[in-house]
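Minimal example, chain plus adenosine-3',5'-cyclic-monophosphate.
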Amino acid sequence: MTTERTFSIMKPDATRRNLTGAVVKMLEEAGLRVVASKRIHMSRAQAEGFYAVHKERPFFGELVSFMISGPVVVQVLEGENAMAKNREVMGATNPANAEPGTIRKELAESIEANTVHGSDSLENAATEIAFFFQPEEIVG
Ligand code: CMP
């Protein structure tokens, strides 16, 4: 077993509804440890850069507008199989398809306002962590 790090965002629907503690509780109960965390309000350039992989998708404009509509909390999560574990506790992208007990099933409002983002590979996790954090900001 290997300890991994993955990247998480609590999205503007989570901060707006004061659900950041509820989300962290579910992450911690799943065995993930928050080793870096900061509340930020992304600029449009940051959101466009972060989601550049989706720039040809029809929902890109709305996705960027949503992600800059309020503060978010960016986090680094650590644990055994952290990337897959975080994906499991998040649930499916569309909350309508998410399993009961997952963050998105219990808390998300819609496919856009789906409360959390999580890296989908270890390679993307490393890129996404580096997008928002300096190495010295991560304290395991
Ligand atoms: P996230 O994991 O942050 O990655 C891209 C986001 O695009 C995704 O979560 C969704 O919140 C958002 N999104 C909005 N509309 C769609 C859609 N139709 N299909 C997939 N993702 C969408």
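The two ends are 17 Å apart (CA to CA). The longest strand covers residues 72-80.
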